[in-house]
Write a structure and sequence with these properties.
- The protein has 9 helices and 12 strands.
- It is an alpha/beta fold and 302 residues long.
C-alpha cells in the first residue's frame, strides 16, 4: 500500500492507495508557523490512514519547496519549514523511510500519468493557490535538475510588466515582483483590495465578478492578463504540449477560455493566422492530484 501526504500552506491531505484504487483519505488544517505541530499532524494522518486500511504502507510527501543537498527544506513558502530536516524528523517519527518531493512535481507526474495530460509528451503543471508552484514532466517523468528547482516559474519576474507592476510586491524569497506575488490567491486578494479598499477572499471576488460587479471584474481581468503573460513565457521557453492547472484557483471556469485567448499576443510567432497548439486544461484529479503523486513516489509499492 502507498500513502501520500500533500503538505500545503492551509491544509494537509493524506491518501492511501492500493494499486491505483483509493482506500482512504484524510484532510486536516495545516498548523501554520508551527513545525513540531506539522510533524504531529502528519503522524496522525498516517496513523488514521493505516487504521482505515488495516495495514502499513510506504510514505511519500509533497511539500511546497524542495530539499537541499544537506537534506534541509529550502524554497518553501510555508516558511516555518525552511532549514528544517523534515525527512529525517518524519522518518524518526514514523519509523520508516520517507520520500519527499516538491508538491508541484508530484502534481505534474500524477496528471501526466493518468490525468488530464495522459499521453502528452511535455507537460507543464501549475498549482495556483496559497502560493504558485510548477513542475515539468517529459515522457511521464519529472524533471528535477541538479539544483532541484526545475519548474520554479513562480519565482521569476512577471513578464512584460506594466508600469504599475514594477517593482512589484515583496515575495517571501527576498525578491520583488515574482509571478507568485501576482498569481497566488493572496496576490489576487491584494490586487482587489488595492482597487476596492476591501479585503475579500478569492471566492467572493470571483462571485462578485460573475454577478457583474465592475471592480471585481476589473480585478479578475487583470489576473487573467497576468496569467496569460506568465504562461506565454513558459510556452516560449518550453513549448509544452499541455499546461495543467491545479490548486484552488484552477476551479475558475473562465480561465480556460480567456487565458489562451490572451496569451497569443505574447507567444513568439503567434501572428496572423498562426495557432498556439499548447492546451490549457484543468487537473483531472482536482485537489487529489498532488497527494496521488506523492503516493507514487514509491513506484515499486504494491
Amino acid at each position: 500500500m502507498r500513502i501520500g501526504i500533500d503538505l500545503g500552506g492551509t491544509k494537509i491531505e493524506g491518501i492511501a492507495l492500493d494499486g491505483s484504487r483509493e482506500v482512504a483519505r484524510v484532510r486536516a488544517d495545516t498548523p501554520r508557523n508551527d513545525y513540531v505541530a506539522t510533524i504531529d499532524a502528519i503522524e496522525t494522518i498516517v496513523d488514521t490512514l493505516e487504521g482505515a486500511a488495516g495495514t502499513t504502507g510506504t510514505v511519500g510527501v509533497g511539500i511546497p519547496g524542495t530539499l537541499s543537498a544537506t537534506g534541509l527544506v529550502k524554497n518553501a513558502n510555508s516558511v516555518w519549514l525552511l532549514g528544517k530536516p523534515l525527512r529525517i524528523d518524519l522518518e524518526n517519527r514514523l519509523h520508516r523511510e520517507v520520500r519527499i518531493a516538491n508538491d508541484a512535481n508530484c502534481f505534474v507526474v500524477s496528471e501526466a500519468t493518468d490525468g488530464a495530460a495522459a499521453g502528452a509528451d511535455v507537460v507543464f503543471g501549475v498549482i495556483v493557490g496559497t502560493g504558485t508552484g510548477a513542475g515539468i514532466s517529459v515522457g511521464g517523468r519529472v524533471l528535477t535538475g541538479p539544483n532541484g528547482i526545475s519548474g520554479e516559474w513562480g519565482h521569476n519576474p512577471l513578464p512584460w510588466a506594466e508600469d504599475d507592476e514594477i517593482p512589484g510586491p515583496p515575495c517571501y524569497c527576498g525578491k520583488q515582483g515574482c509571478v507568485e506575488t501576482f498569481l497566488s490567491g493572496p496576490g489576487m486578494m491584494r490586487e482587489h483590495e488595492r482597487r476596492s479598499g476591501r479585503r475579500e477572499p478569492v471566492q467572493a471576488i470571483v462571485a462578485s465578478a460573475e454577478s457583474g460587479d465592475p471592480v471585481a471584474e476589473e480585478t479578475f481581468a487583470r489576473y487573467e492578463h497576468r496569467m496569460a503573460r506568465a504562461l506565454a513565457s513558459v510556452i516560449n521557453l518550453l513549448d509544452p504540449d499541455m499546461i495543467v492547472l491545479g490548486g484552488g484557483l484552477s476551479n475558475i471556469d473562465r480561465l480556460y477560455q480567456n487565458v489562451p485567448r490572451l496569451w497569443t499576443a505574447f507567444v513568439f510567432s503567434a501572428g496572423v493566422g498562426d495557432v498556439v497548439r499548447t492546451r490549457l486544461v484543468r487537473a483531472a484529479h482536482g485537489d487529489a492530484s498532488g497527494v496521488r503523486g506523492a503516493a507514487w513516489l514509491w513506484h515499486e509499492a504494491r
